[in-house]
Amino acid sequence: MSEVYAARRERLRERCAASGSATALVSRPANVRYLAGAAPRGAVLLLGRGTDLMVCAGPLGAHPDDDRPDEALRIQTLPGAADGRGDPAVAAADLAVADGAESLAVEEHHLTVARHRAIRSVTPRLRLTDLGGAVEQLRVIKDEEEISCLRIGAEIADQALSELLESILVGRTERHLALELERRLVDHGADGPAFATSVGTGPNSGRRGHRPTDRRVEEGDFLSVCLGATYRGYRCEIGRTFVIGTSPADWQIELYDLVFAAQRAGREALIPGAEYRDVDRAARQVLDSAGYGHGLSPLTGHGVGLEIDEDPQLAPAAMGKLDTCVPVTVEPGVHLPGRGGVRIDDTLVVRPEADGGPELLTITTKELLAL
Amino acid sequence: MSEVYAARRERLRERCAASGSATALVSRPANVRYLAGAAPRGAVLLLGRGTDLMVCAGPLGAHPDDDRPDEALRIQTLPGAADGRGDPAVAAADLAVADGAESLAVEEHHLTVARHRAIRSVTPRLRLTDLGGAVEQLRVIKDEEEISCLRIGAEIADQALSELLESILVGRTERHLALELERRLVDHGADGPAFATSVGTGPNSGRRGHRPTDRRVEEGDFLSVCLGATYRGYRCEIGRTFVIGTSPADWQIELYDLVFAAQRAGREALIPGAEYRDVDRAARQVLDSAGYGHGLSPLTGHGVGLEIDEDPQLAPAAMGKLDTCVPVTVEPGVHLPGRGGVRIDDTLVVRPEADGGPELLTITTKELLAL
Predict the structure, then answer these.
(1) Domain end: B114, B138, B162, which one?
(2) What confidence score (pLDDT) does residue B246 get?
(3) Residues B308, B159: one domain?
(4) What pLDDT is attached to residue A21?
(5) B353 lies in which domain range?
(6) What are the chain A neighbours of B112 within 8 Å (beta carbons)?
(7) Are residues B66 and B190 in the same domain?
């Protein structure tokens, strides 16, 4: 794996060189992990002309289960830094100067004003520039190793969900169902949940990011569930909506079919070269033309990877085009205040048509199941 | 409750006025919650000369379970801001200028360089100053309402732990025990766990912040557990170490007694007016003089409240003195690489001697239980 991280750092180094800064300081944890294989708490990465260096706030965990950074990296540990004395970012800037750097590109969207000021005061002659989202941009297109982690995570989430569906649901609370799903994710080998599991019943169903409450599942409810597994750091997402009881009401069937059609339209729009906003529009216009345009979520999907909400955003104003090997969610939904709603959410990888089109990672059925 | 939040905002306003800035922008979520009663995702608080205003990234949840901000606040919602267009902090600065503000104190330890720059570019004539940790300082001393939330949280954690101890432990993994504890916290009314529950067995026992693994509990192990409940936003912490099996080894009894003595010394040093570092030293020197000075955690305890790790820090270099009504943890521990160790952790509230001294919130026994 070491070569993978070295190659990623090399690509970043090329970008930095192209924009005039030979040295970069990466502080955002997911970016550190992407470039170094691990992101110990508080650690930053200094990419200089010569050696790459990780500066850690404290000693690396001696435990075999702890993620270890790439062995090709030089590691510097700040003595006594864990009690707040000594910021790895400041120490890294200091080392950059000692190494002859005249400018340093930092992640201005992650560093706080106070830390930035601390760097300036310790290294007043160092010119600080903005690395911007350079690492986030590198992270958008995944390699097959990364996709394989997402695929395993999706299998775990599918399995946790299918087991839940085999159990009795009526009478159980949203909170309990969410906790049970999270336990099953871990049972099946996830590092943990990819985000707070959302379970919504009855009037709460179909709300994006609904925080589980003590409401119990009742006959006739819609039940919507959104969960994901983290596997080796990679986070996927699946969302499904079910009906409780033997016979869904007409409005439930109609609403389900509509959201299903919108989600299918979004999935089918996942073609290499498609504009992000065209994918969003494909799904959104189905809901819009049925009169549900008001109150829709501002996005139809988003990238996933080391974070659950990455670039790209599939939204009306998003700029950019899909590439092959970009994993995204497609997750339209409709929520009717007081009644509930439907949300269907898959994680897919953009693939060329010649390879069979988008690869669906979350394969749980999207038929309307009556449980 | 509304008066409580208004009074807190008034105290902050007085501090700002004293330091020359009539208007403050609060962005750190725990600080927003402290002053407004709720912190919707991305929301910031603008404290001006006249009205207090919350600027939200999107509409407030219509759900009855969502926390609602103080009704005395004016609420401004940014239309369409949820897809990334429009930063509430920038909008708030703009409103401050419209309201006649000439300077604005911001939380430089929370705002990123990029957001700070966005504020400057939208409001170039506004003088930006640093609010520093003013709100965090207000948060150190708790009122009885806050302490009561911590007390309930501690009761919940005690209960979750006592139920776990009644079950069979041998053969179960650290991960499962941690998940079970978290489920029980929620069962007993917690909003959720206060932090990632830590369960360490055998060689993993006694490590601060140990991330649960698939290691199973074995006869003869030390088992250390650290958990906490969040109740109405307030987070407490309890840590205990047990032995598995009927007869602890001599080294286990000795190590336990030592850590127990250190923890008691720390607790007994919790007197109003005591220096933070003297509390740390009281616990630390017990371990130090027994030859375990090397490799100790850099702190012996810390404040708790809306965040699990607040001011003060009980550490060798910490500056400041304890006040009455400050809740802190006392959590010394020793970990012997390859063998495991002991960690004992309580949440207590500093109280005057006349009121009976420190109030212990986490009341689970600290006898060495053999399970």
Answers:
(1) B138
(2) 82
(3) yes
(4) 81
(5) 141-360
(6) 108-113
(7) no
Instruction: Let me know whether A204 and A317 are in one domain.
Output: yes
> Among residues 181-210 of chain B, which lie with CB inside 8 Å of chain A?
182-183, 186, 204, 207, 210
Indicate the residue of A66, A111, A298 with minimum beta-carbon distance to B82.
A298
Does residue A316 sit at the B interface (CB-CB below 8 Å)? Answer: yes
pLDDT of residue B66: 54
Tokens matching residue A1: 């794996």
DSSP state of B144: H
Residue B299 has φ and ψ, to the nearest 5°, of -135, 155
Q: Determine, yes or no, domain membership for B370.
A: no
Do A274 and A322 touch, CB atoms closer than 8 A?
Answer: yes
Lowest-pLDDT range of A56-60, A152-156, B356-360: A56-60
Whether B51 has a pLDDT exceeding 60, the answer reads yes
Which of A62, A112, A183 has the CB atom closest to B337's CB atom?
Answer: A62
Kindly report, residue by residue over B59-94, the tens digit of the pLDDT.
765 444 457 888 889 898 887 544 344 899 999 999
* B109 vs A contacts (CB less than 8 Å): 112-114
- To the nearest whole number, what is the mean pLDDT of chain B? 92
Q: So what's the pLDDT on residue B36?
A: 95
Tokens of B361: 């919130």
Is residue A367 assigned to a domain? Answer: no
The residue among B138, B166, B181 that closes a domain is: B138
A78 and A131 within one domain: yes
Verify whether the Cβ–Cβ distance A183 to B186 is below 8 Å: no
A131 with A235, same domain: the answer is: no
Would strands A310-314 and A301-303 be described as parallel, antiparallel, or unpaired? antiparallel
Question: pLDDT, tens digit, for every residue of B90-108?
Answer: 999 999 999 899 999 999 9
Answer yes or no: do B112 and A109 touch at CB < 8 A.
yes
CATH number at residue B193: 3.90.230.10
- Among A108, A113, A213, the residue with its CB nearest the CB of B108 is A113
| Secondary structure class of B77 (helix, strand, coil) | strand
Query: How far is A207 from chain B, CA to nearest CA, in Å?
Result: 10
Q: Do B85 and A317 touch (CB under 8 A)?
A: yes
Does B261 contact A at CB distance below 8 Å? no
Alpha-carbon span B190 to B182, nearest angstrom: 9
* Residue B211 belongs to a domain: yes
Query: Is A270 found in the same domain as A249?
Result: yes
Per-residue DSSP letter, B290: I
